[in-house]
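Sharing a chain and its predicted structure for anyone who wants a worked example. Both blocks are below, sequence first, tokens second.
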Amino acid sequence: MHVRSRLWLLMLVGVSLSGCLDSNRSPTLKESMNPAPVDRTKLDAAEAQLSSIESDLQRAGGMPPVERHAYESAMGPRLEQAVVAAAETRLENKALYYLANWRFTYQEAAGVDQLLNQLAGLSSPALKSAGDRLRVMVRLRQGRVNEARAMAVQLVERIPEFSPVLDLVIFHETVGSAAPKVVSNNLTGGPDEPVSKRSEPWLFYLFIDALDDQALFLIQRYLDAMAILPVGERRIVCVTYDANLLSATTRVRSLPRASEIDLLWANPNNGGNAGEWSKAWKLPAKNPHIALLGPGPNRTIMAVEMTPESLRALLTVGVPKATESKEAK
């Protein structure tokens, strides 16, 4: 689940990997003797559309974060047109997967299940495993954690390279548990252990590797999302694994609302405590990752991996006190 931009750019890597993993099936004798007719004009048009989209995505990767987010979030109509253009061609799998991934990233997964059902129903195996992985992520976003685990286990048994999706399931299973209390240097002057020391009812933990421009843009978006609550009722705790301590502190302090942020250092150097943070919070390998902590002396992890939009909605209507994964235990 910006987290969004990173997920979106990973789409191309996922397509490349999954294309290899899904293309091992040899054509049947019937298929070899009676290949489906190819509409060359339709195929060329679909190929041109998808090639243009891929080129534009690569170009967008070099844009400043604000521009990149705006550009990528507006790509829906082009992707929908590509699905129509690619229908009944060998590129239909790719077009469906691209649109599903975009909707997961920029439309809170609206309609993704239907697109993945279409993908699963096609005769070609290309990208179907990537679709299965995406469906696991959709289930997690829906809060259907037990179902996501069962799907992830089956997927990883078939394709071990997809094992990181199980790490994501494990992180979601921490919802309902007590928040870990890890002590680190607070680089912005607050408490070194905010879970028990901060007075604000709502704490939002954001784990970041390097505090680059994309990370700062992400922090700002979550600050904006939490602004629905009064300042005294919420706090963002940014835990950074950035090796350059001075640069990380300077960049966070340059944000317009830096006073609303605690910056904790998960020291990645030899002898540092980066590993302690990752183990205690059961974090998947690559950041960013996100967790919302509720009020009270023994804070509970209320939700993880929310987009800024879903976080704002969650804080608007209130946070459920029970979770599927905790009830199952």
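Comments welcome. The two ends are 25 Å apart (CA to CA).
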